[in-house]
Amino acid sequence: MVDSDQLRGRPAVFEVSVSAVVIGRKVAFMLLLAAGFAGVPELARADHAGPEAVISNYVKACYTGDVALLKSLFHAEALMTGHSKRGFYLGSPEPFFANVAGQEPMSKTEAAYEGRITTVQVSGDIAAVTLEETGYFGRSYTDVFTLAKLDGEWKIVSKTYYQSQ
């Protein structure tokens, strides 16, 4: 596992908090997942290892352009939604995968990309992780991932993003 901050030689910083943004009826089932986080005390660090590994691998896949790894981290029916400078998007992550595949990997251009996990919340077999990305092909994003542990494996079931620059 390659942690995003290890790419920069710094230890990861983790804090436990939660914020939920739900948009539209299509993602209403995500409300059930997010609702389970309210009032849950901080769990042992070991409970965070699975979701952190998935998001760290997400950062690695984005940086290296490894679309096969990126796809493996998402559930087959995952949803992606968010706001970027191009407007609002709600749908499959497939256009995101195509975008990553269609660009020269940031690792080859030595781009100053950083992905930093800022929050991790785990409740049983569900988790929410916030990732702050800077330098992602020249843009910055805040991503909120919802993960579910299915058949013993953590998968991203939704990604909500906001492009800040």
Brief characterization of the structure:
The protein is 31% helix and 36% strand.
Relevant terms:
single chain; alpha+beta; 165 residues; 6 strands; 31% helix
What does this structure look like?
Helices cover 31% and strands 36% of the residues. It is α+β, with helices and mostly antiparallel strands and 165 residues long. Helix 3 (45-64) runs antiparallel to helix 4. The longest helix is centred in the N-terminal third of the chain and has 20 residues, at 45-64. The radius of gyration is 15 Å and the shape is globular.
Major β-sheet profile: 6 strands, mixed
Instruction: Classify the secondary structure makeup into a structural class.
Output: alpha+beta
Question: H/E element string?
Answer: HHHHEEHHEEEE
Strand order in the sheet with the most strands? 2-1-6-5-4-3
Mean pLDDT, to the nearest integer, reads 78
Low-confidence stretches: 1-44
What overall geometry do the principal axes of the alpha carbons give?
globular
Task: Tell me the distance between the termini.
Answer: 29 Å
The number of helical segments is 6
Count the beta strands: 6
Strand content: 35-45%
List the helices and strands and how they pair.
Elements: H1 4-7, H2 28-35, H3 45-64, H4 67-73, E1 74-84, E2 87-91, H5 94-101, H6 106-109, E3 114-123, E4 126-136, E5 139-150, E6 153-163
Parallel strand pairs: 1-6
Antiparallel strand pairs: 1-2, 3-4, 4-5, 5-6
Helix pairs in contact: 3-4
